[in-house]
Every structure is written in C-alpha cells, then in structure tokens.
C-alpha cells in the first residue's frame, strides 16, 4: 500500500490553512474597522453564513464524508475510481443547482431561520439582498470540495489546502476597493454599505476561483472530471445511502450554529461578537483539527482496505498526539490572554472597548471547548473510514439537544454568552459519545501505550505556559498594549511559544529527537 504521509500531509494542509486564516483575520480586521458591529456588518455575516452552513450538507459535512472513504478504497484497489468520481460529480451538481435556485427564491425565510431577531429592522432587508448574491457561492465551493476530496484521497493536499487563500485575497481586495471609493451600494447608505455590497460579489468570484484551481489540479493528477448527467449505479446508490446520515449529522451541527445565532440576534452587536470570537478559535481548529481530519480520513480508509491494523493504530495515535500538542496550548492561550488578543486584532475604528470585552469573553469560552472540537476531527474518521455515518448522526442529535437546552435556557440570565457556553459544553458531550462508541471497533481504534502519558505531560506544559502568559499579560505588558497593541501581542505570541516549548522539553511532553523522527517519517 502506498500510504499517505501523515505528518507531511498535515503540515502541508496546516501551513496553507494557517495562511488562509491569517488572511481571514486581515479580512475580519478590515470588516471590524470599516463596518464595525452595525447593521450591514451583522447582515453580511448572516448572509455569508448561509452558504457556508449549507455547504456542510453537500460538501465537507456529508458528501465528502461518504465520498472520500469510498473513493480512497477504489484508488487502493484500482477499481474504477475515476468513473465513480465522475458520476458523483454529476449527481452533486444536479442537486446543488436545484437547491441554489430554491434557496434564492426563499431567502427571506432562510434569513429568519438564521436570525429571527432581525425581523422588523433594516438588518433583515439587507441580509436578504446580500444573501441572494452570496448564496451562489455554495454551488462553486461544494463542487470544489469534491475535487478536493479526489486530491486528498490520492495524497495530493496542496491545491485543496491553498484554495481558501483565494477567498480571503479576493475579499480583502474588494474591501480595499470599496474603501477607496470603487463601486456603489445596493443596500442603502448605512455605514459600510458599499463594502458589504462589494465583498458579497467578491464571495461569488472567490468560489469560481477556488473551483477552477482544484479542477485544474485534479486534471493534472489524472482525474479530468467533466460535467455530465448522473448515471444510476450501485456505487452511486451506496454513496447516497452513506451520505444521508452524514447530511443529517451536518444538519444537526448547523442547527447548533443556528441556535447560537438566534440567541445572539436578540442582543445588539452579539452576532458580530460571536462571529469574531468564532474566527479566533477557528484558527487553531482549522490549522490543527481540520488538517488532521482531512489527511487521516483517506489514510485510515486505505489502511483498512489493506487490513493494516498496526498502521491504523499508529496513525490514530500520532494524529492524537500531534493535534493535542497544538490544540491544548492554543486553548489555554485563548482563555489566558483573550482580551489582549481581541484588542490587538480588532479594537480600532468602529470596533470599541465594549466590543472587545464581549468578544474576548466569548473567545475564552470557545477556547475551553477547542480540544474537544479538535479531537472530534480525529475520532470521526474512525467511523467514516468504516462507512459508518449513522452513529455520528445519533450522537450529534444528543449534542444538539444539550446545546439548545443550555443556550436557550440560560439566555435570559446570561445573555448572548449562553450561546458560547452551549457550543462548548455540547462539543465535549459529542466527543464523549464518539469516544465511547469507538471502543467496539477493535485494536485499530485504540491508542498505543505511550499516548495517554504523553497527553498528560502536554496538558501540564500548556498549564505552565498559561500561568506565565497570564502573568506577563496582566503585570508586565499593560503599558505596551495601551500604546502599541500589535507589538504587545507579538511579545505574547513569542513568549507563549517559548514558555510552552521550554515546559514541554522539561516535562518530556516531546523531545527534539522525536520531532526530527516525526518529520523524517512524514
């Protein structure tokens, strides 16, 4: 078996994802400065969330969770992988075109489903208008996700990982053009109206650019797929049977997000606060958790096809150690220095001190759930590689109920922050269910003996780092943060790396030799 190189694959996806997320922060910093947390900002965030939410039904959350394992096994067995991918592309395209047309027609109801608190004010009309523009993005980005699945299953990660960079480059360009007077507004004259208009059109352009990039890369890799009508086949039927529970599971996850936005929509500015906080914890989640999941799913699928039990166990152990070595310190840092982090990144222009405090609170709470969100990406491939999408759906329903009870039940006393608390608690609940369910999968789904002790040492090193970071932030840097927040944040980031690295080496959470060996193994 030509095994996928786990470490090098994760590094490739992680580096490109990091670049994308950094550019995403630049984009959000510009949105925060020029749109603030006003009606256009909140309307655009809701409108943009719509295609991103539904793409998880048709792409990452459902279709690819079914498609990648089946395609990977066909690649491993040399059993008609190209024909299968061609037919899957045809079926997905047909479904997406129909759905996009229907969603555009019924956009007012979709906006109400996302943010019923917008009813009766200008945010609703703006969100409907912008939503009808940006929803076309789902067609292009979902098709791009299928091509990305083809590339990932064959061990080619670069193009698919680089594609999201195009989105942020194009949106940053649109924001700069708007700021310098280019273009006109189609949503009135509110603060940032021209910016909101241009970036909405930019979203569609970015979707086209991402699709072209991964289509070209797939063609170069030997899979020049073309649009055609879908052909009924046993493989396509099997794909749809597996994808249906995954789509429902994706729907449950999106309902969790809907619950959060519904709660936030009843508090002025809260949609933006939660959105900016979400961006912060999504950085390590994307760089670590999503990168691990993208590489681990085809790797496990191909190892199971080859009956490589020892390799599956080793891959799971390395993925867990790698993800937690990065996610746990990131979670501790988000909790320890959230105010300084948000202040340095966003507090300028229309984004004020109150916005910083509320966003930082949500960021810290999301941070507490980060290890759970990341580990879900590690454990879920154990199910999907076995073409088991039903149990993750059942677990997601339980997590949804837990999230709803907490978020809605506590909003009266805790306000918008109840949504963040519900998300974090539900994340840990989902992980507990996934872990419990995986215990019956045999030796291939177990850790190697040294993984547990290593995770304890990683946690200890991260806590040492957190205490030192908190001390430096509160006692040594207030003056620097007041005069030059960017320099202060740079000091905290470099200090955090140094504190964690030093504590990790002393506590033997990792060693230089092991790091070198991991890189050589790939």
What is the gist of this entry?
By secondary structure, the chain is an all-alpha fold.
Domain count: the total is: 2
- Percent of residues in helices comes to over 70%
Cα-atom radius of gyration: 22 Å
Shape category: globular
Determine the N-to-C terminus distance: 15 Å
Order of helices and strands: HHHHHHHHHHHHHHHHHHHH
Spans of at least 5 consecutive residues with low confidence: none
Query: What is the overall number of helices?
Result: 20
Query: How many DSSP-defined strands?
Result: 0
Strand count, sense and closure of the main sheet? none
Q: What is the typical, i.e. mean, pLDDT?
A: 84
What portion of residues belong to β-strands? Answer: under 5%
Structural class: mainly alpha
Q: Layout of SSEs?
A:
Layout: H1 6-34, H2 39-58, H3 63-77, H4 81-105, H5 107-114, H6 122-134, H7 137-153, H8 158-179, H9 193-220, H10 234-265, H11 270-305, H12 309-336, H13 338-346, H14 353-384, H15 390-414, H16 417-438, H17 451-476, H18 478-483, H19 485-506, H20 512-521
Helix pairs in contact: 1-8, 1-11, 2-6, 2-7, 2-9, 2-10, 3-4, 3-7, 3-10, 3-11, 4-7, 5-6, 6-9, 7-9, 8-9, 10-15, 10-16, 11-12, 11-14, 12-14, 12-17, 13-14, 13-19, 14-16, 15-16, 17-19
């Amino acid at each position: 078996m030509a095994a996928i190189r786990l470490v090098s694959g994760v590094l490739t996806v992680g580096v490109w994802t990091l670049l994308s997320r950094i550019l995403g922060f630049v984009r959000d910093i510009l949105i925060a400065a020029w749109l603030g947390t006003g009606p256009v900002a909140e309307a655009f965030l809701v409108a943009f969330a719509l295609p991103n939410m539904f793409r998880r039904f048709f792409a990452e959350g459902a279709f690819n969770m079914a498609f990648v394992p089946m395609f990977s096994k066909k690649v491993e067995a040399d059993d008609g992988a190209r024909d299968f991918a061609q037919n899957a592309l045809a079926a997905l395209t047909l479904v997406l075109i129909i759905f996009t047309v229907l969603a555009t027609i019924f956009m007012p109801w979709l906006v109400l489903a996302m943010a019923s608190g917008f009813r009766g004010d200008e945010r609703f009309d703006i969100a409907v208008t912008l939503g009808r523009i940006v929803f076309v993005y789902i067609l292009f980005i979902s098709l791009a996700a299928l091509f990305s699945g083809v590339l990932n299953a064959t061990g080619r990660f670069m193009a698919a990982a680089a594609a999201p960079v195009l989105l942020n480059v194009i949106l940053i360009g649109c924001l700069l053009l708007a700021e310098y007077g280019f273009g006109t507004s189609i949503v009135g004259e509110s603060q940032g109206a021209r910016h909101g208009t241009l970036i909405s059109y930019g979203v569609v352009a970015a979707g086209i650019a991402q699709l072209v990039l991964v289509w070209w890369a797939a063609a170069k890799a030997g899979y020049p797929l073309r649009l055609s009508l879908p052909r009924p086949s046993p493989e396509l039927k099997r794909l749809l049977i597996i994808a249906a529970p995954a789509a429902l599971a994706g729907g449950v996850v999106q309902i969790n997000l809907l619950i959060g936005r519904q709660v936030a929509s009843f508090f002025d500015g809260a949609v933006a606060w939660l959105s900016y906080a979400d961006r912060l914890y999504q950085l390590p989640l994307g760089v670590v958790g999503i990168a691990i999941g993208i590489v681990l799913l085809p790797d496990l699928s191909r190892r199971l096809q080859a009956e490589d039990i020892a390799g599956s166990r080793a891959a799971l152990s390395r993925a867990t150690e790698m993800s937690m070595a990065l996610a746990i310190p990131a979670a501790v840092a988000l909790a320890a220095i959230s105010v300084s982090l948000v202040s340095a990144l966003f507090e300028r222009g229309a984004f004020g001190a109150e916005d910083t405090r509320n966003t930082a609170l949500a960021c810290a709470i999301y941070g507490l759930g980060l290890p759970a969100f990341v580990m879900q990406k590690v454990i879920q491939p154990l199910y999907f590689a076995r073409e088991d999408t039903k149990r993750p759906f059942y677990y997601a329903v339980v997590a949804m109920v837990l999230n709803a009870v907490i978020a809605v039940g506590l909003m009266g006393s805790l306000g918008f922050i109840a949504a963040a608390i519900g998300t974090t608690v539900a994340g840990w609940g989902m992980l507990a269910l996934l872990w419990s369910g995986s215990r019956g999968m045999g030796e291939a789904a177990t850790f190697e003996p040294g993984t547990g002790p290593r995770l304890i040492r990683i946690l200890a090193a991260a806590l040492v780092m957190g205490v030192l970071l908190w001390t430096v932030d509160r006692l040594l840097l207030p003056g620097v943060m007041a005069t030059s927040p960017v320099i202060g944040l740079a000091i905290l980031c470099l200090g955090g790396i140094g504190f964690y690295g030093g504590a990790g080496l002393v506590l033997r959470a990792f060693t230089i030799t092991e790091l070198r060996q991991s890189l050589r193994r790939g």
